[in-house]
Amino acid sequence: MPINILAIESSCDDTAAAVISDGKVLSNIVSVQTAHELYGGVIPELASREHQLHIVPVVDSAIKESGITLSDLSAIAFTRGPGLLGSLIVGVNFAKSLALSLDIPMIDVHHMHAHVMAHFAEDPMPSFPFLCLTVSGGHTQIIKVTAHNEMEILGQTIDDAAGEAFDKTGKMLGLPYPAGPLIDKYAKLGEHKFEFPISKVGKLDFSFSGLKTAILYFLRDNTKTNPTFIKEELNHICASVQETIIETLMLKLIKATEMTGIQSVAIAGGVSANSGLRNRIESEAKIRNWKHHIPAFQYCRDNAGMIGITAHYKYLSGEFCGHDVTAEARLGF
Ligand code: KG4
Ligand code: ZN
Predict the structure, then answer these.
(1) Which ligand has the minimum distance to the alpha carbon of residue 307?
(2) In a domain, 310, yes or no
(3) Closest ligand 1 atom to the C-alpha of 301?
């Protein structure tokens, strides 16, 4: 009998479910919440309510698309944390009820491990060790990965995440949330015309709060003299901000390869969908002779496929959790 896992992800604003059979993704369904567009960020209470509305139809679609039935399931996997507590609780409680009613084990998954493990959803898979630059709306980390369930953070942001830098820039430019994909789109039409600071924070850590302040003052000063500045220069502003964020990320990733001697790199998380970052990894890999791994778009953003893949390897090593498990908003790495 194959190992069939139903995986549930509800850590932030996407309700997702997937079915994984012997480590292969049979279905990967995501329901994207649009309720936050107007607010410039995720509203936790709204996110939790939306998860409650969507979780049953999303799980239903994942099961139907996979072609298996509930009685074929070997285990239920879910995101335990980190994330928004009210969002996580919906997924955890749903997973618990289903696992109890089917009398099957549960596997708790760390959301950031899962972003890294997304690289094991499809061929070619990275070989160990490799460095993963995980860049999302809540995290920015350089992770040294030595086995499927062995990874260590070498550096991370001390304030805002890279995705947050995109989203907060978008808010200042009057773009809807999440602004990352829109900035990416406009950046393709512009040039790196404006200079913004690159943070000098130590070792392999990152900081994006200085950039945010610099953009705020830059827009304030320029719109004072020209009220239509943002409209006229939108593409160039987007290209300049995007380039600055990519440069900040790449400087530290290059430093990490030099410090560890590891020449195999990967990117993960929502920001790894960014076309500029994807191109830069490609070109840097060519220059520096790196092996590189860029995930398919469906595995960049939050999804349950990555939760199920992580759970598959935990299943193989017998790592289950009790049915009394609770969500952990600040789950340690
Ligand atoms: O991994 P993810 O879906 O959720 C979190 O765990 O946070 O990442 C969402 C983040 C948002 O900040 C969004 O603006 C950013 O990923 N993002 C992008 C792009 N697509 C999504 N940022 C830059 N360029 C993109 N193409
Ligand atoms: Zn994420």
Answers:
(1) 2
(2) yes
(3) 3
Looking at the chain, the whole-number percentage of residues with pLDDT higher than 70 is 100
Q: For residue 164, give the ligand 1 atom closest to its CA.
A: 12
- Which residue, 8, 216, 207, is CA-closest to 95? 8
Distance 306 CA to ligand 2 centre (A): 10
pLDDT band at 39 (very low <50, low <70, confident <90, very high): confident
- Asked, for residue 13, whether it belongs to a domain, the answer is yes
The answer to whether the CB of 137 is under 6 A from ligand 1 is yes
Measured from the alpha carbon of residue 138, the closest ligand is: 1
Shared domain for 171 and 261, answered yes or no, is yes
pLDDT of residue 85: 98
Residues 287 and 172 placed together within one structural domain of the fold: yes
Mean pLDDT of 52-69: 98
**How many domains is the chain built from?**
2
Q: Does a structural domain hold residue 324?
A: no
Regarding the beta carbon of 136 and ligand 1, being less than 6 Å apart is answered: yes
pLDDT exceeding 90 applies to what percent of the chain? 96
* CB distance 134 to 141 below 8 Å: yes
Question: For ligand 1, atom 20, which residue shows the shortest CA distance?
Answer: 181
Q: How far is the CA of 57 from the centre of ligand 1 (A)?
A: 24
Same domain? 104 vs 191: no
Residue 281 counted as domain residue? yes
Q: Say yes or no: 290 and 197 in one domain.
A: yes
108 and 206 housed in the same domain: no
Beta-bridged to residue 143, according to DSSP, are: 132, 153
Taken in order 215, 216, 221, 226, is the CA torsion positive or negative? Answer: positive
- Alpha carbon of 73 to ligand 1 centroid (Å): 31
If pLDDT is split at 50, 70 and 90, which confidence band does 311 have? very high
Handedness of CA 92, 156, 182, 36 (dihedral sign): positive
Q: What is the CATH number of the domain that holds 260?
A: 3.30.420.40
Q: Tell whether the model's pLDDT for residue 111 goes beyond 80.
A: yes
End-to-end CA distance of the chain: 32
Taking each continuous run of H as one helix and of E as one strand, the counts in the chain are 9, 10
Q: What is the pTM of this model?
A: 0.96
Average pLDDT over residues 211-239: 98
Q: What would the mean pLDDT of 86-112 be, rounded to a whole number?
A: 98
**Domain shared by 84 and 137, yes or no:** no
**Domain range for 153:** 127-295
